[in-house]
Design brief:
The complex is a heterodimer. By secondary structure, chain A is mainly alpha-helical. Among the domains of chain A are: about 265-540, no CATH class; about 610-655, no CATH class. Chain A is built from 24 helices and four strands. In chain A, the strands form two sheets. Chain A has a two-stranded antiparallel ribbon. A two-stranded antiparallel sheet of chain A has the order 3-4. In chain A, strand 1 and strand 2 (about 70) form a beta hairpin. In chain A, helix 8 (about 225-230) crosses helix 11. By secondary structure, chain B is mostly helical. Chain B has one domain. Chain B is globular and about 50 Å long. The chains are: A mainly alpha, B mainly alpha. At the A-B interface, helix 24 of A face helix 4 and helix 5 of B.
Chain lengths: ~650, ~210
Amino acid sequence: MTLVLLAIGVLVATGVAALPVRCGTRAGTVTAAGAVGAATLVVGPALRAMLGASLPGIKRVWSVPLGTFSLGIDALTGVFLLIIVTIGALGAVYGVPYLTRTAPGRRLGVPWCMYNLLLASMLVVVTARDGVLFLVAWEVMSLASFFLVTFDDRTEEVREAGWTYLLATHIGTAFLLAMFLLIAEGGPLSLEAQVVRPTPLASVAFVLALVGFGTKAGFWPLHVWLPQAHPAAPSHVSAVMSGVMLKMGVYGLLRVLPLLGPPAVWWGWVLVGVGAVSGVGGVLFALAQHDLKRLLAYHSVENLGLIALGLGLGTLGLASNLPVMAALGFAGALLHVVNHAIFKSLLFFGAGAVVAATGTRDLDQLAGLGRRMPVTARTFLVGSAAISGLPPLNGFVSELLIFLAALAGISERTAGVVAPAAAVLAALGLIGGLAAACFAKAYGVSFLGEPRQPLAAHDPAPPMRRVMVLLAALCALIGLGGAWVVPGLTAAVATLVRVPFLELQPVLGGDVGRILAAVGALGAFFWVLVLVLLRLRKAVLGEREVGASPTWDCGYAAPSPRMQYTASSFAQPLVELFRGVLHTHHDVAPPHGIFPRTARLATETPEVVEVGFLRPLFAAIARLAQRLHVLQHGRVQLYVLYLALALLALLVWQLGGGW
Amino acid sequence: MGWEIDPILVTLVLVNLLLLGGSRLVTCIRLVAVQGVLLGILALLVQVGWSPTRAVLLAGGSVLLKGVVFPRLLSRALRGAEIRREMEPYVGYTPSVLLGLAMLALTVWVSSRLTLPLPAASHLLVPVALFTTLTGLFLIVARRKAITQVLGYLVLENGIVTFGIALSHEAPLSVELGVLLDVFVAILVMGIIVHNIREDFDHIDTDRLASLKD
């Protein structure tokens, strides 16, 4: 615990030290050094806690009303600590050269300080064992990330994204505040896992928690800020926000659920429903996007949906007294938290490399980057396969666990378990297929083919390359070593399932372990096959000349690179299939005549929740608020009168015995 | 020792009522000055626990600022603004005095219900302090000219100081000095603002500021 506190101190100190630094690169180096230092400090205790060691916490009297300064580490905290510091440190290392290239000559003291503050506040969020401390850290996290989202604040779009994010996060916090007040019953609230207090209002608290944490996690339909904020932020910030900060919402749910006492069955249904809608909705909207980072943002919605599916199955298992299903569901959700942190940050780093090299995020402008940016292309391919849940990578392992949980549920006899489990299976299948299609689009369109216009792109600076390679290697390693990784989560799952550690070990180690070992072996075989084929290709092609020639052009004499598939045209059949959901706007000027002069097509897929629901809602609120405008008349005297009357009324009320 | 300070407290109440009923700005400024001097004497009489030099210094500083410096500043602003009377107040003078009496009754009732951590030096001290505070607030609310608002602010401040005298027999010197400095700066700034508003708009009616709202 002392090490974690020390790490928080290092993060804040280096962040503050970077503030006055004039040179952007140097400010980044200072904070990145701090982030890496903090990571080395935290990794040890985090791993030990994750494997089930009990580490002492810290408890101090705090002058804040109802609050105690109480920190602790358990296995669940350990898992999240690990992803915070790993992705945080890698993001900082990546960010230094990235910002040097994309924002040359800017003073970066404040953004870098906010970056470290974000990491430090997330460390406090996952270690806090007191409701007030948790909320304070939560707010610091939200504000620090707000300042990071608005990094490029000279752009109108970015400012708007920032406001949307700020509004969303505060609405979320409002729900959390209400939830904490409710379960604390007005008193101080300890978040220790041992304190289980069954309140009759648990279901209300569950809904409040789901909305509050779901806003941060980006569950449908609370995800509206995500597709705006992620493209707006610099890529390393998007990586940390999407890979790590969204997970704080998941962490919050996992931390609070045990406090609410034994769960009701319908909580599981709700979580499964939210997960299925987020997953399918996220991937469908991702399919219709042609901004690379916006696409990735929608995939975050999808993946958080997958995590919610796992949580839903876990809760369902708890509520119906099926510990195997519960353990598998929670294990799948937790592993997917880790996996998504790895491959989503990898993909955002790849997107950042593309942005840094080409200056655009528009997929319709990109093509043929693979030959010019081989490292980025290969790591992006690994990330794409992983996020689509393809073996032998890590996404497959976590989705497999969720599948297994659903299969465990479907073999039960009660309809309340079988129906949601079947729904999970269907949703997982649909999501997996659509995600693969979407990443075939994202990868194929941007990295394969020939450039549409002359292009001088090349791989990014060595630190950025190394970060991407490392993350890709992690994807492959977890994919191969699922049989070792999953038992590592046993302790964390045990705190959630409320079953002793030793009872759970055979569940995640036995049959599941054998399945995962088989997956690992097949994966290893796949990699060997890939290596052999590569060697074979080299041997066969080694002596010969390799050239490029046009594809068969159906007799058309003058093909040009502009005639390749674009992202929009590739996705068109699927987008058309789901147009009932997507409401894509087509702006078409079709070609006329035998020698058409101009033709045009532009598509845009607006955020359906935002346009269809939130905008009218906020417009209505604004109209209502307009009525209150009478009170704001600009007369100073009357303002003072309001104050004086309110104070007097309070005084009289208080002294009159509060009648 | 109530007999020593009661006359001063009664005078304070009378000054407040006069302020509520007075329309001539010069008179009002002088009344506030008198109030400042009375407060200084009051502090001197009540704070028996203090070392004499400290009490004298503090009371002297207070009297000097509130009795001499502020009135000078305000008079100069008044001369610059070339106005003499508060015309068309939001609440007329006679209703103001009547409301003042009502406030006095209210404060006496309030202080009878109020439990204080320490016994006050006189049973009149707390109601007078509250009444002075309310009078200040009332002046701010019910008057139009910027200069009367400044006076209201000063009276409000005097009320708070009286309350402090009533409550804290051991008020830290730094706090008192800080409050004095605060008021000093406020008066200075307000004097300048009054001057500038007049320069630009040819009047100092605060209700015209309403056009500045969004």
